[in-house]
Amino acid sequence: MVDSPAEVNEGWCKELAESACEDAAPRCGDPLRICRAWAGMGSRHFFIERAGRYYDAQRPDGVDRMSDLPFFRGQAPHDVKRVRSY
Question: What count of Cα atoms within 13 Å lies in the side-chain half-sphere of residue 60?
Fold first, then answer.
């Protein structure tokens, strides 16, 4: 069982991003994109990009810079790829 946003970001981030986009896309005026980025030693993270802001379970209100998502904790995201658009 997943009990906190931090736990979502440790293995369930892709599922959350997909579910959130599928739910929000019909009501959202801006395109939604699921992105994947790597950090550190092989850790990857899926998150949502919308209108120049980045969202995940720990930052549902979004941040201006991808590197400000708590998952990256001071590590520069790399090999960023948009994996799906809604």
Answer: 8
